[in-house]
Amino acid sequence: MTSAVVLDTGILGMVVHPRRGAAFNAWWEGILASEAAVFIPEIADYELRRELLLNGFVESIRHLDELETTLEYLPLTTETMRRAAELWAYARRKGRPFADPKMLDADVILAAQAQQVNAIVVTDNVGHLGLFVESKPWEEVTMP
Asked: pTM of the entire structure?
């Protein structure tokens, strides 16, 4: 059982999609009904919002905005970005880069945000994030 989750970009995209699948919808309703803290990390909001804006997905943008009034929004802070830099350097030293060295690596920023609130990341990218923080696909996340 999990008491706090952070939503990765892909999962957040599924949440705001106007036509979610039945299994995902049932899972999401269970998350909302639980006592668990659900966080929207600012980095995931940014990654998703830019794509929604690019493609003109107005309804999904509206859903995203509504979510931020009911769930806990996890803003970026100096502390988070410094921790993300440490994680990025750690991954490079271990030979596990996730992006070009000159690119901002959103995965390490997301991992740092999850560490900040001691939460697992609900993601479709367990391989990358698992190096830094507990992460699971949505189908494996259950709430108390």
From this structure: 0.89
